[in-house]
Specification:
Helix content: 40-55%
Strand content: 15-25%
Shape: globular
Largest sheet: 6 strands, antiparallel
Oligomer: single chain
Number of strands: 8
Structural class: alpha+beta
Order of helices and strands: EEHEEEEHHHHHEEHHHHHHHH
Distance between the termini: 38 Å
Radius of gyration: 19 Å
Number of helices: 14
Length: about 290
């Protein structure tokens, strides 16, 4: 990766495996808006970022070099070599090779851990447009105002200390539905130290088990939280759809159990299972495989 600083912009001049739309639109995050072709507004870590493709370069608009180094390089995982990862997971796998070729610009984001946890609690039995709306509602009601872009006001996602002030009725007003009580339990356990957001010293199984002590959090939500905010990319988040995708693509159409899916993912992709899941999930969603 190489970049230049031009006035108030950071311009990526050399990079690999990064297409903005493929990274943002593959279901791993929810606080973004498309404002043009390969042109997005992203809200993360209390910042508003306009990021867009300009010819062969990618522009990070109105951000300092310090902010770029401290937030956006890690958020977009720009220091990781995805060409190597894609080669390792697809060179002996024709199915995954097709998935990677379809969307080679997906990168795994490193999101705020608390926001990611609450976002995937909200995602249960929910469609992406509604998930985005609920998160925006919660941010507007409980978070801090951070600025305006294109005439739209944006608010930071609330901290645990801000969201602990919410009650079930207030969360229901944000359209959380049955998930309100799960959010409240998550906030309580984070505030009281039962859920450690700094648990980098824990192994993946222990971290998963800790997250699953939250009401309503099962293996899928725990694995998504670990993968998209704790950097545990050996996980393979599996819901009903992913199970169907794997059954169709890797088990000859026979319905496989979650255990079998995880065994196959570990056998085929190992420590890179999470990356493989994103390429497969995106590919299958676009072509309605397993639908």
């Amino acid at each position: 990766m190489k970049y230049i600083v031009k006035e108030n912009d950071i311009i990526l001049t050399e990079y690999e495996s990064f297409v903005i739309s493929q990274t943002l639109e593959c279901g791993q995050c929810f606080r973004f808006e498309s404002v043009g072709e390969e042109n997005y507004v992203v809200i993360a870590f209390g910042r508003i970022l306009n990021i867009y493709q300009d010819g062969e370069t990618i522009v990070f608009k109105n951000t300092s070099e310090e902010e770029f180094k401290n937030i956006w390089i890690n958020y977009f995982d720009l220091n990781r070599n995805y060409d190597d990862i894609k080669k390792k997971i697809s060179e002996n796998d024709e199915i995954l090779k097709k998935a990677v070729e379809y969307a080679p610009g997906i990168r795994i984001l490193n999101q705020d851990r608390f926001e990611c946890l609450i976002s995937f609690i909200i995602s249960q039995n929910n469609r992406i447009p509604m998930i985005k709306k609920v998160i925006a509602n919660i941010s507007r009601k409980y978070g801090k105002y951070i600025g305006t872009f294109g005439g739209e006001e944006y608010y930071a996602f609330p901290t645990p200390e801000e969201l602990v002030k919410a009650d079930e009725a207030g969360l229901m007003e944000c359209r959380t539905g049955f998930r309100a009580k799960y959010i409240m339990d998550a906030v309580y356990k984070v505030i009281h130290g039962e859920i450690r957001l700094d648990a980098d010293d824990m192994d993946t199984d222990s971290l998963r088990n800790m997250l699953m002590t939250i009401k309503g959090v099962g293996p899928k939500v725990a694995d998504c939280t670990m993968m998209f905010s704790f950097g545990r990319c050996e996980t393979f988040p599996t819901d009903v759809w992913v199970k169907r995708i794997m059954s169709e693509l890797y088990f000859g159409g026979r319905e496989a159990s979650v255990k079998e899916v995880h065994q196959k993912a570990d056998e085929c992709f190992g420590e890179f299972a999470g990356y493989a899941q994103q390429y497969l999930f995106n590919y299958a969603r676009q072509f309605k495989i397993g639908a």
